[in-house]
Amino acid sequence: MSSTPHDPFYSSPFGPFYRRHTPYMVQPEYRIYEMNKRLQSRTEDSDNLWWDAFATEFFEDDATLTLSFCLEDGPKRYTIGRTLIPRYFSTVFEGGVTDLYYILKHSKESYHNSSITVDCDQCTMVTQHGKPMFTKVCTEGRLILEFTFDDLMRIKTWHFTIRQYRELVPRSILAMHAQDPQVLEQLSKNITRMGLTNFTLNYLRLCVILEPMQELMSRHKTYNLSPRDCLKTCLFQKWQRMVAPPAEPTRQPTTKRRKRKNSTSSTSNSSAGNNANSTSSKKKTPAANLSLSSQVPELGALQSCSLNPGRDGALCHSTAVTPSVQFKEKH
Predict the structure, then answer these.
(1) Per-residue model confidence as pLDDT tens digits over 261-276
(2) How far apart are CA 219 and CA 92, in angstroms?
(3) What does the pLDDT look like over 302-331, one tens digit per residue?
(4) Per the record, which residues fall in region Disordered (predicted)?
(5) Beta-strand relationship, 97-105 and 115-129
(6) What domains does the chain contain, in order, with CATH numbers?
(7) Which helix (H) or strand (E) holds 104?
(8) Cα–Cα distance between 327 and 225 in angstroms, integer?
(9) CA angle 263–264–267, rounded 5-degree value
(10) pTM for this entry
(11) Integer Cα distance of 325 and 215 in angstroms
(12) Residue 40 phi/psi, 5° resolution?
């Protein structure tokens, strides 16, 4: 049966008059295809600005990237934020990788109010290694992505659980070194661990330390404070959030209809009310005399704090806090 102009798949040789309209919003899997194309356009001269632009194009400002896998010493799980994502992708290529792309098979999509979730149980991360030897590594696992449901459709959460990996060496290389047992022994050794290079694994271990320090680094960059002042300010604000009581919901006053009472009942009620007020005031007196340090144990250790105005407001200079964290400032 030949196709007719009424067929939606018909393409006229005289022009695109009967072709289907492309959807307004791109499918989530096509975003992964675009990311693969962007990674292929990387050059050896790609600097930090290129990687930051790459992360800005495909990841939200509050995005998180999580990797889960199992090594010889047990299961591992690393989660990094948006500021550390560009460096993660660059470390993959610094470990000898020349090409990186992702293959998604039989993925399932679920649409929500403001996001789209893609669950792919058969995801393969393919890396082409040029050194120490020519090897193709296929890392298989489950990839769960959450995209924002807007025109940009950037990734909000990335969770890749690695199950297994394979390292493929061309037969031509084995045939070239068939008479050299030392080279064959070297070719038989794995060059990755669960499909990840040593550069990437070391960076993920470093992110365990860098991720909690993002607040200190951002405060140092914004207010130009010393590392000690940044640490004191963050600790003081955290202490304020712990001590501050939870906000109670505002209650609307109930209006009651006043009833007219006689003089005898009013005098008796007034005397009873005075007695009640006196007893309530006596009961409130011990509670008012209680110090805040007795109610909050953490306050006793921080009573020696003196609030001095700093460059970004009030700073808590406490002798009880002696941080040993020092990091160098970039010039």
Answers:
(1) 555 555 555 555 555 4
(2) 29
(3) 444 434 444 444 444 444 444 444 444 444
(4) 245-292
(5) antiparallel
(6) 26-209 (3.10.450.50)
(7) strand 97-105
(8) 12
(9) 85
(10) 0.61
(11) 14
(12) -70, -25
